[in-house]
Design brief:
0% strand; mainly alpha; globular
Length: 409
């Protein structure tokens, strides 16, 4: 599989193959879908595997693989890493990366775009400093969910506020008060963990021309350009600068892009199998069953808020898409909120925060699969280091249990 930087796997435990796990799960899901001819079951599975929103993610995987490979081949990643080491002291790299990830995701409103832009740089910094690659990658993924949860232009924010009937600015105030302590705590943890990172023994002068593709990617992403257009522009810049610089000719560029696309092959297969399996779960009433069971015995405001959190979390596990999860349970959550007198701003905040928490911790989510592909890691390796998604889950549960913030509870 294509990797931005090779990872020494001789010292780690054997990797769990997600592709095999999903293949077995998919076969089992098709077998137990009784009452339908086998062709009909396979058609249902194929429909989920080829869903429109899933195919969009697959094209992003393909472009991200091509961009990262061509950027690495012509030296853009090394140049950007050298620039980062020049601007930031080594012992501040972890908190610096987390803050950069939070800012960019808040600006562009998408965790996927943030992962595409920053994970290759984090992988390069890990390679240069000898620091844990999984930790560096997880810092970016965690920070990406800060903006996914809070940004005014994030899909989850838009859907959560629309389904609950509140203003985005009001939801932001409630949501920020809940997750801000988690963000500050995680920032302090990263500062402590990263205090022993040392500068590389030899520093290399920064080749500023080769940094251009990443700067353009970041600037255009923050400006709101579509992530596929951003990647295409970055890809073209890599090719032009690489050929001007002599890093490769046009055939070398094509070969680098081809290696990058092939390196994303396993992730594409995993994503398609996950989509097919989850469509069978939905078609057989699995999601409806979860919703009916969780809403059957609600008792009081606190129980109602916990039920909304559990609903969106379980549906997110089944759909691997936080926006779709909020859309699926949004109207039901609104009914629960109205029935038990829950503030709609608090309900919207619960929907958004718990969907981002779960999305950030399932190994088959688009963001973690993409981060794994760009850093050369197994998705399972990244999960234990995702401190921010874990932290927002904990503080959100505490906010429900202790009725915080008081004026919205």
């Amino acid at each position: 599989m294509f990797t931005v930087y090779s990872v020494d796997k001789t010292k780690s435990e054997p990797n769990l193959s997600l592709s095999v796990a999903f293949m077995i799960s998919s076969i089992y899901a098709i077998i137990i879908s009784g009452g339908l001819p086998i062709k009909k079951r396979i058609d249902t599975y194929s429909k989920g595997a080829g869903a429109t929103n899933l195919m969009l993610m697959l094209w992003i995987y393909v472009l991200a693989g091509a961009f990262s490979a061509s950027a690495q081949q012509m030296g853009a990643i090394d140049a950007t890493v050298n620039l980062a080491l020049e601007l930031l002291p080594a012992n501040l790299l972890l908190p610096g990366l987390f803050l950069a990830s939070c800012f960019i995701s808040l600006s562009i409103g998408t965790s996927v775009g943030t992962v595409v832009a920053l994970v290759p740089i984090a992988a390069g910094l890990s390679h240069s400093t000898g620091f844990n690659a999984t930790m560096m990658t997880a810092v970016i993924v965690g920070g990406a969910y800060f903006g996914d949860n809070l940004s005014f232009i994030s899909d989850t924010t838009v859907v959560a506020t629309q389904t609950q009937g509140c203003k985005m600015s009001d939801k932001f105030r409630v949501n920020f008060r809940i997750v801000a302590p988690a963000a500050l705590l995680v920032l302090c943890v990263y500062a402590l963990i990263g205090r022993n990172i040392t500068e590389p023994a030899q520093t290399v002068p920064v080749e500023y021309l080769k940094v251009t593709p990443y700067l353009i990617v970041l600037i255009t992403a923050i400006a709101g350009m579509n992530v596929m257009a951003v990647l295409t522009l970055g890809l073209l810049l890599c090719g032009i600068i690489g050929m001007i610089d002599g890093s490769y000719n046009i055939y070398g560029w094509f070969a680098a892009m081809g290696d990058g696309v092939l390196g994303m092959g396993e992730l594409v297969i995993i994503a398609m199998m996950a989509g097919g399996m989850l469509e069978i779960i939905r078609k057989n009433g699995g999601i409806d069953f979860i919703i009916s069971k969780l809403t059957a015995r609600i008792n009081g405001k606190r129980g109602a808020e916990f039920s909304i959190a559990a609903l969106v979390s379980l549906v997110n596990v089944c759909t691997a898409n936080n926006t779709v999860a909020i859309l699926t349970v949004g109207s039901i959550s609104k009914n629960i909120a109205d029935r038990f007198g829950i503030d709609n701003r608090k309900a919207a905040s619960i929907l958004d925060t718990f969907s981002c928490c779960v999305q950030g911790l399932i190994p088959y989510s688009a963001q973690i699969l993409l981060a794994a592909g760009l850093s050369g890691l197994n998705p399972i390796q990244i999960i234990p280091y995702l401190f921010y998604p874990m932290a927002i889950g904990v503080v959100s549960l505490l906010a429900i249990a202790f009725r915080y913030p008081k004026q919205y509870s």
